[in-house]
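Standup notes
- DV: blocked on the single-chain target, sequence here:
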Amino acid sequence: MLRVVRLHLQIEMGKLTTLVGLIALSASLTHGKVYADLEQLDSAKESYDFVVVGGGIGGGTVASRLSENPRFNVLLIEAGPNDEGVTEIIVPGLFNNISTSTKYGWGYVTTPQIGLKNRSLPYSQARVLGGSSSHNGMVYTRGSTDDFDLWGKVSEDRSWSWKTLFPYFLRNEKLVPPPGGRNASGQYDPRFHGHRGPMSVSLPWSGPTDFDLLALKNAEQSREIKFNLDVNSGKPSGVCGSSYLLPRLFSDSQKAVILSLGSIYDWKRRTLHQATRVLPSKESRELDIRTVEIVSVASGKATTVTAKKELILSGGAFGTPHLLLNSGIGDKEELEEVKVKPIHHLPDVGKGLSDHLSFPINWSANDVVQPVDNAAAFEEWQVNRTGPLTQGPAHQLMFARIPPDAPLFKEHRDPAAGPNSPHIELIPVAGGPVATAYVALLTPKSRGTVKIASNNPLDKPLVDVGYLTHPFDLLAVKEGVRMIKRWFEGPAYEGYITGYLGPDPDTLPEKEFYDAVKEIVGTFWHPVGTATISPKGAKHGVLDPDLKVKGVKGLRVVDGSAIPYVPTAHTQAAVYVLAERASDLIKDSW
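- DV (later): unblocked, structure below
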């Protein structure tokens, strides 16, 4: 499992202006501009070739790459504040503090979930420069070769494939030594990693723990889950030793990253400025959209910014469909129901959301874990950027396929993209007298939606993740629980694991087990697919294979909403590679 540093935008030649809560960040002291408010943006009277809406992984990457061309002037708009200097964001070990923050997030809550006994889930989505790269657990796993080949099959454009995208993974990545400089040779396969990209990644500060070593020993005798040197090879199934890469904790050059030169934010009002709609050109007979409307929540004043070449939406799987729907782009009948005037009938906007759910289960264990001295750990972090706060709670990942003779495949077709795609991710965590494992379903058949509740674009979207609404998913979670039960029954854990604390699918009545699952299931925050690619000219889908919005000139989407099915991985690596290739597609167009 690799971990990746929060977003660093490399700017070498072109000009990039970034609005953060309508505060611009300088890409470099040489080329950047700083705007303190909308009035300064208006008075600058500067034109932009590309306007990117959303400063997260997709938007930051594409803006950075486009800015490498000295002919292009790029504006990056981010609704949230700058992430520079925010301790909870900078320190990886404080991930849990920031992941639930409403200060740097949109504060979404799902609609009541039918599959979860009508529970609503708080759903973390970042509203800060860097987007989810500043907000999440920074886990870097790519998924399987099949996942990316599926993009080509769905879009009928085989230029979307693992073979085509692998060079972009390498271009994006810079593998560096672990914090503290320990020797990590033999703990990853260098053939699958880049060394010159903008995204610095590294193995954990600490080597394999005693708990990790038990798993490696168990893998030697397991028929089901074997050792895998590097899960980022395109074949992720297995358990990997010392398995994730942590962020490089400083940049090689201050000139190569976005620098914050100031930020003004009104926390009492929650959001000071927000992109609300995209607007069609009145001068074109075709539907030509290159303008975004930005509204001051405090005053209600609206300002528009128009791109000379393209407007690029990077609001994420919730933000992008929300913006399109508020603009009148979506299902005509559904828009009319909330009194939004339709300007372009694209029924699949906001449909097809797929996401990873997780289910935690526990065992009693014969173990003692020494608690971390938080004060000492923070001091170590401040002094030399090493220590336990350089890494998150999980130190190891396992990926596995459900056995082909499992009963659920007699009732349901296998949803995996291919034989290299695992169905289940297992995250074991040592916790002293209690050992925990998170069972994540990687290949859900359930689908959700993002809709709008009214014609007020400042209202939050209606997010329905649709968990456990397809019967396959409950059966697959049951198989995942059985899988991790078998794992901890392995000989390496004899004397360590002392009992299973349930719920147990093999002893409980089926309904009682399923009820327990529905009461505990949570999210891994990996939504995709709400503005997905499809074949050029197809009536279904939202984007053509070149990521242009179907039937619209000047408008493109670069974020996780374009990904047709959630990959068998933590999703940020997939978004990075999508944005890397998107930047080349855009450059080639101009």
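- Follow-up: The mean pLDDT is 86.
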